Amino acid sequence: MRHVLLVIVLAMTQLAGGCRRETGAEAKARSKARSAAKAESSVLEKLAGQDEAERWQAVVALSRDGRPSGRARGQLERMTRSANRRARCAATVVLAKIKPADTNRLAGLIEALDDPHRAMRVAAAEAIVAFGPAVEGATTALIGAVGSDDTKVRVLATEALVKIQPPTEQIVGVLADCLNDEFRPVRLHAIRALVAMDIAAPGVIPALRRAVASGSRELRQAALEALMAADLTTEGVVDAIAAVMSVDDPKLQADVMDKLLVADPAIPGVTAVWSMGLDSLDRKTRVRVMRGLRTAPPLPDVIDCIIKAARDEDRMISAMGLVRIGELGPQAKRAAPLLVEIITGPRKGRHMYTVDVLTHMAQEDPTLAPMLCKVLLTEEGDVRTKLVTAVGQGGLRAKELAGVLGDLLNHHETSAEIRKAIVAILSRLGPPAAAAARQLRAAAERADQPEALQRAIEDLLATFGAEDEPADSDH
């Protein structure tokens, strides 16, 4: 009995002592819980308030440790369906911070991109970035954010598009528009995204072309590096590269020339860029192009570029062009009109070399004989002498030459001295000069001729016969 009583007393003592300890802990816990609940309620009230600073502080407080109470989470869920737009946006941002990439939050985050508070907009953009391109609507949301009035939101959106790499066709147009953004980080993120894309994808080359023609050297350089690393035969690549010739950037223009001057001139657009280089105000660029033209194959567009260089006001560049025309000879017969201009023009120091080139061309290609004869109207005696000598060496089709010379004889600007030179040439042509001889007689009858010229005409007529028909044979 005594033993039983002792056990009962000990049990009651332990029970009494235990109750005291539990009561103290519970009281403390209950007090803490009440304080936390009160604080949470106060914070939750601020989420829907008008004070933007307090609203953002509430978002930070609720999402700081990521473990708000279940009751608070329930209230946040209910707030996402509230009629109060501020409350909806704030609650959505908190829940997105607690549980990133929750697809249930995407619509609310898109709405939060237009929240009046900047930090809220930025937080919404950051939360959307976590979704990635696989989540339907995320890319659309980011594209919308790119057009935000908030520079930070635009930066986040363009940066996100670089990271998640959605399908090119969805974003290339938006990124192209971003190249004109007033905020530099937006432009840089946009160009980084564009140069990372497949250059053959629709819209990429036009976007890069906009970058090349932009006012930002960073954009131009990045875009040009991507374009010049691409296959130049890809449609639009060379034209996009050519856009740099329209801006004042000699260094990049030189880089472009170095790249394209070793390219196949048969690639569409390549020689057009060379021609633009010859129009450059930068002399070094023009010289660089002309040096490249010295080894280029004599395609028609290449020769046109050489002709343009030969017309350059810079004497060295012009001389380089003329030398190349002389090297090509008859292959550059497209340059014959230019040679005539030079021979009959004011640059007397180049007359004799140009006459050599033109006569060589005419001897190889008889169709140039009329062009050669036109220079007889020049007042340069040495030029006429050289032409007479060249014609006398043969190689020109006598029949064609005789007809042209006959026309010159009757030209009202043809002086007596030049007519003498024409007669000297005709005397070397044989029977084909008969028609010209008859024209000479007609000319002599219409106007007074110097005695020496009249004697030459009579000698010519006596040799071939004024009434003979022109022969068809060549000299």
UniProtKB/TrEMBL annotation:
PROSITE patterns: PROKAR_LIPOPROTEIN (PS51257). InterPro entries: ARM-like, ARM-type_fold, PBS_lyase_HEAT. Pfam families: HEAT_2. GO terms for molecular function: oxidoreductase activity. This is Clathrin/coatomer adaptor adaptin-like N-terminal domain-containing protein. PANTHER family: PBS LYASE HEAT DOMAIN PROTEIN REPEAT-CONTAINING PROTEIN (PTHR12697:SF38), PBS LYASE HEAT-LIKE PROTEIN (PTHR12697). SMART domains: EZ_HEAT. Gene3D superfamilies: Leucine-rich Repeat Variant (1.25.10.10).
